[in-house]
From TrEMBL:
The keyword Manganese does not apply. Belongs to the SecY/SEC61-alpha family. The chain crosses the membrane at residues 18-36, 65-92, 113-133, 153-171, 183-203, 209-229, 305-328, 369-386, 392-410. It is a multi-pass membrane protein. It comes from Flavimobilis marinus. Keywords: Cell membrane, Membrane, Protein transport, Translocation, Transmembrane, Transmembrane helix, Transport. The gene is secY. This is Protein translocase subunit SecY.
Amino acid sequence: MLGAFGRAFRTPDLRKKLLFTIAIMVIFRIGSFIPAPGVDYRAIQDYTLPDNDILGLINLFSGGALLQLSIFALGIMPYITASIIVQLLRVVIPRFEALHKEGQSGTAKLTQYTRYLTIGLGLLQATTIVTLARTGQLLPGLDPIVNDSPWTAFLIILTMTAGTSVIMWLGEMITERGVGNGMSLLIFTSIAASFPTALGSILGSNDGLQKFIIVMLMIVVVIGLIVFVEQSQRRIPVQYAKRMVGRKMYGGTSTYIPIKINIAGVIPVIFASSILAIPTMAAGFGEATDGWVQWVQRNLADPGAPLYIVFFLVMIIFFAFFYTAITFNPDEVADNMKKYGGFVPGIRAGRPTAEYLDYVITRITSAGAIYLALVALIPTLLFVVLGISTNIPFGGTSIIIIVGVGLETVKQIDSQLQQRHYEGFLK
């Protein structure tokens, strides 16, 4: 692999793409440390934000920028949310589904809608964060870190929203001129940046070395499981009949439909974490002596609580099936195959093919949902057993994202090396 990296950097155009990607990632990290105007930066240096809170999730995806109320405090989260919403709206709004089927022009239009929605969500999230910061509810235990001046609040909201726009532009620049998917690489950068601090906190605890070794072994095992599953495919054979067009014969070839075990990716885990964080946020606005607030804090605020684990499992499985049903339409695939003369051997074209694909997808998604639930819960359960704080970025969501993005980026570099007649990373 080191030799492949050397060949990649010796190729002029590929070296330029790699250096450009690294430069954008460095700029993104620098922006995460520049505080927004009007923020008491020193007061928040040693504060720890719980990761099970929705703000903790945003802080994780921003690489710690939210905790510092920097110009990139919102991170990539508004864009992720906007992208998911636009995909879900394809089921509700026929116009969006029609644009999706139009090809490149329709995709460009949907991307434009995603950008507008990202700015709107960024404005909404920035307003919420600044409001919580002014009232002292963003970082409980600290005095308000933003003064009550309306002009200061407006300036911070404007700065954070502009930062979201810059992050979106940086991600698109990587996709266009660099290597890999820009948004995914920025998420990768944010999460990976938090790992050294978390490892240091484990080493500094009681029996730190022993816990550190166990955690590292857990990470290696989970990464191995993720790589094995993410690389696995169920290949459905497809045969294309021969057909005469003019004087030329077309078709007669054999191919396959590659179906990943985890079609939904990390989206079900993000959805489940976000929904479970809503009651915790609502409890923050209630009185500590209220019965419902105490119940939420006891059962839904702690990732190690039995009820939290049950709800987390159920929602991951539900959203795995829900998101797969949105992204993979067996009827559409069967119709496209029939249109071009394709069929699955032993299965009639049309409706029988759609039913067969739906049967296969249901079985595969069942395995993928169980895999997601296991990967998401193994780190949390281990931390509870070892007595380690769960407020560290080793949750299943983080590891799945890092490994998944790493695999996809290596595949893209590998394909570009093979186009230049070099041996790639994968053998």
